[in-house]
Amino acid sequence: MTVMERARGIIRDAGHVVVLTGAGVSAESGVPTFRGTGGLWKEHRAEDLATPEAFVRDPRLVWEWYGWRRRVVSQCVPNAAHVALASAARVHDDFRIVTQNVDGLHSVAAADSPRAAPLELHGCLFRLRCTRCGKRRDDRGVIDATSRATLPACAACEGLERPDIVWFGEALEPAVIGEAVALASAADVCLVVGTSAVVHPAAGLADLTRRRGGHVIEVNITDTPLSGTAAVTLRGPAAVLVPELLSPDFPE
Ligand code: OAD
User: Fold this and answer.
1) What is the pLDDT of residues 48-57, one digit of tens each?
2) Do 241 and 154 lie in a common domain?
3) What CA–CA distance (Å, rounded) separates 169 from 69?
4) What residue ranges line ligand 1, CB within 6 angstroms?
5) What is the CATH number for 157?
6) Structural domain of 62
7) Residue 116's closest CA among 101, 103, 105?
8) What distance in Å separates the CA atoms of residue 233 and residue 200, rounded to the nearest whole number?
9) Do both 83 and 114 map to the same domain?
10) Residue 37 placed within a domain
11) Ligand 1: which of 196, 218, 235 to mutate, most ligand atoms within 8 Å of CB?
């Protein structure tokens, strides 16, 4: 039996499946990852760009960087992995997608299906939040970061808006991480796709499934801290392996 056949068998026998994705699932869509070759944290210092302190110090610089990331991601479309995951979630109630990604590509692949909508642990590049009143709004417009005065402002209170993203040193939304913990704790399978599994609490979700006797299946191009405890590791690009893993058992 091949590792792919073994992984398919585990998924076929599972009642509840939770999928945890990271930047690697979007790599073949052209979205840069964080820690690999050419990764964002290789070329930029997270503490200058992705912390609340950085935003207080220089909101224009932070918005310039997020404006650039929004432009890059706006040109990307979901790949075969996003599509296969969304198809499975659309037809199976007990198949849920939890993502660390802020690129919104799982949501695009889910189109209008609430069932296939992902839980976005770290927020979304295309949602803004007012630093004064907390009001959130979806926005795909161009960010003008030429000066402090041109940065996005809240329509309700005129407060400065920030990307609605969980930065280093910030806590995840309790309701969102709470739901992810509940899903992972009840899952028979945690399918982990394209994450280096070093950022907590997301990286701990697979352990919750494993500790209840469920299986972890990992799809990645390389080893991660989770590989040793995974029931099956599938080595290769997500856009190839995920559709191969799901298509026979999750027909549309
Ligand atoms: P990383 O950049 O840390 O890891 C990406 C993972 O994807 C690595 O393990 C790669 O080996 C793997 N990978 C790359 N290309 C792949 C492909 N084509 N197919 C399958 N796997 C591939 O990204 P994350 O683990 O998502 O936080 O990073 C976690 C968090 O750290 C992010 O959400 C972000 C970052 O700081 C916030 O923005 C809050």
Assistant:
1) 899 999 999 9
2) no
3) 21
4) 22-24, 27-28, 33-36, 39, 100, 102, 122, 165-166, 194-196, 199, 219-222, 224, 237-238
5) 3.30.1600.10
6) 46-75+127-165
7) 105
8) 21
9) yes
10) no
11) 196
